[in-house]
Structures are given as C-alpha cells and as structure tokens.
Amino acid sequence: MPEKGFLPLTDYREYPVEEMKQRSSEFYTEMKRRRTVRQFSYRPVPRDIIENCLCTASTAPSGANMQPWSFVIVSDYAVKRQIRSAAEKVEREFYEGDSTRTWVKALDHLGTDQNKPFLETAPYLIVIFSQLHGFLPD
C-alpha cells in the first residue's frame, strides 16, 4: 500500500548495472556537447518539437512536486516585438548603469550588448513564468 498522498510508480524500470553505466556514459557524452548559444537562427522549427521540449521541461522535479512554472510559446510577431522592446529597455539600463561596469567588462569579449534582434526573428520565444502562489485550497 503506498504512503498517503503518493501514487505507485507503475512504469518504473530498473536497468542492469552495466546498462546503467552505458546509458549514463552516453547521457554525459550528449550533455557535454551542450553549448551556450549567442547566435540564433531564424529557420522555422516545427511547433510540435517545441511542444515536446516543453512537455519534457515541465516534468522537472520541484519542491512538493508543485512545478511552480508555466511556459508560453510566442510566435506572433507583434508580441515578439513588444518583448524585444521591453528586454532592450532593461538591457540598456543594465549596460548604462554605473554599478555594473565590472560585469559589463566581463561580457565584453562575448560581443553582447543591449540589442536583441533575435527576439523578433526567432520563430518562437519561450516565456517562462514563475507561479508565486500555489494551487492549495488556502
């Protein structure tokens, strides 16, 4: 009998140790290929690929299993333009602020600045919202 509030994990599969080693090694190899991206493509991406990625992201563990986040896929050009305008305003304040000189200097070699044209040209923007209030009855 499962503990109160817990559902049994009926589709759990335990792998043999050697297979776990192989799978973990393959996973590490794939993950170490990951890179931070600063140049973005404007090429279209099938929406279902984006949706599958977000479905995967939504399964991430969280405190009390609340998953206090929401994802919104933005494809409308006018909305992307508004997001770009707001983002560039915040970035201008960051780059022009006196208190951030050290940080701006640390970013200099990356060639980044307050201009974010990719926010309009990317096929989709993924906006992540944090939920500050839970779904509990109170």
UniProtKB/TrEMBL annotation:
Chain ranges of the Nitroreductase domain:
32-128
Q: Does the keyword Cytoplasm apply?
A: no
Q: Which first-to-last residue range defines the signal peptide?
A: none
> What Pfam families is this protein classified in?
Nitroreductase (PF00881)
Any single GO molecular-function term of the entry would be:
oxidoreductase activity
Question: Per UniProt, which keywords does this protein have?
Answer: Flavoprotein, FMN, Oxidoreductase
**PANTHER family, alphabetically?**
IODOTYROSINE DEIODINASE 1, NADPH NITROREDUCTASE
Name of the molecule in the record: Nitroreductase domain-containing protein
